[in-house]
Amino acid sequence: MCATLFKHLPDGVFLIDPETSCVLDCNEVALKHVGMERSEILNQSVLKLHVEVMGLDQWASLAQAVRAVEHLVFVVHHRHKSGAEVPVEIKTSHFWQDGREYFLSIARNISTRQAQERAGHRDEAQLRYALNEALDGLWDWNLQTDEVFFSPQLARMLGYGPSEMTPHRDTWSANLHPEDALWVRKVLQEHIDGQRSRYNAEYRLRNRNGHYIWVHDRGRVCEHNDDGQPIRMLGMMRNVTDQKTMELTLQAMASHDPLTGLLNRREGEQVLDRQLELCRRLAVPMGMCFFDLDHFKRINDEHGHALGDKVLQRVAQTISHEVRSTDALFRWDSDEFLLLCVDTAESDLLVLVEKLRAKIAATHWQDLGQLPGITCSFGVAVFPDHADNADNLFVAADSALYRAKAQGRNRVEVAPKNTPAAAAAQTSDNK
Ligand SMILES: Nc1nc2c(ncn2[C@@H]2O[C@H](COP(=O)(O)OP(=O)(O)OP(=O)(O)O)[C@@H](O)[C@H]2O)c(=O)[nH]1
């Protein structure tokens, strides 16, 4: 039985003479480890199997150490007959039998284990590298305790040192931009509640210096408890400030007039539709004023286009200062501007527009050169009094402006009321 066990043990077993270091017996596995015949090993010094060969002096010290403890465990390399080196963990104990001392060494081939450990270290190193060097910052949120692991890269992205960010959800939520906080939390909660397959948001987050950066943040619940409740969420965050700034600049360029900085006609047409719809729903009036500089061509012709540009800029500036923040001013075309005033009835609109007219007429232009007095003509129409849709309202304001020009310029004209007679009059006016 003993011999059978000895034979079938998964590890190599050597019976050794402590005095000479010679192998007295070994099992089949031991022979297999070194690729040798029994005759090649028996009565040979066990040290010959070791790559790290020791002399007998060292063997004597080793033997002392074996005798001093119950088991001595050490790692060496066995040399396979083919020349390959096999890492083995050796566990040696000593015992006495019939007045003679023996060492029993169990040699375990640890090449697989070492390879796994090396792979493990590699994985760990890769993970550490990824956490430190990846473009994205990683966060790992315990939904039960609200503790959050922020990776070093994430901390760095926000200007913090590796251990400066308190590992808690509040560290994130307290720094959300006030305009983004509500909707970002909502999107996140919807994912946690299972209403969205993933959390994905682009928003502003305050960094350590108090400045906001744009981040693209995305993540997913990755663990649930036995009741199916989400308990852990993992996510990645990327600094997209540069892209976002570029995107916003392009958007601004597409919707703004580069000369005056006002919203352009393209944007105006959309705003007009939206504002009119809003006023219709709220059953409030909307005032529209279409205005145009008087004899602007002459200014260009007599003083140059560059100075003409400055005049346009100043008119835009002057009018912008006079209107409310809820009003919308657009540069429509060449020297034409459009003003939309939500919830403004005709009488109020006329007071405002008259003020604008007077303001432009009273503006001093000397700092720009020897300019004549500059004036504008204004056409006014109000929804729903003069028209009940955007196109007709625009036509009404435009024809009122036409009349203001025809009647001497530097004046304000109101569109005729939205009646069949008025519509007919308007048509004949436009001929
Ligand atoms: N400086 C400058 N001029 C422009 C710009 N866009 C259009 N214009 C000029 O603005 C002038 C507009 O003239 P009009 O509206 O036709 O006529 P007006 O001289 O203003 O005469 P009334 O409108 O009838 O009073 C034209 O000479 C255009 O070339 C611009 O961006 N800068």
Q: What is the average per-residue confidence, as pLDDT, rounded to a whole number?
A: 88
CATH superfamily of the largest domain: Reverse transcriptase/Diguanylate cyclase domain
Task: Return Rg in Å.
Answer: 44 Å
What is the strand arrangement across the widest sheet? Answer: 2-1-5-4-3
Major sheet description: 5 strands, antiparallel
Hetero ligands: guanosine-5'-triphosphate
Count of distinct strands = 15
CATH fold category name of the largest domain: Alpha-Beta Plaits
CATH top level of the largest domain is Alpha Beta
What is the level-2 CATH architecture name of the largest domain?
2-Layer Sandwich
Could you give the order of the helices and strands?
HEEHHHEEEHEEHHHEEEHHEHHEEHEHEH
Indicate the percent of residues in helices.
Answer: 40-55%
Low-confidence stretches: none
Number of domains: 3
Tell me the β content: 25-35%
Continuous helix count: 15
State the separation between the terminal residues, measured CA to CA: 121 Å
Category by helix and strand content: alpha+beta
User: How does the overall form come out from the CA principal axes?
Assistant: rod-shaped
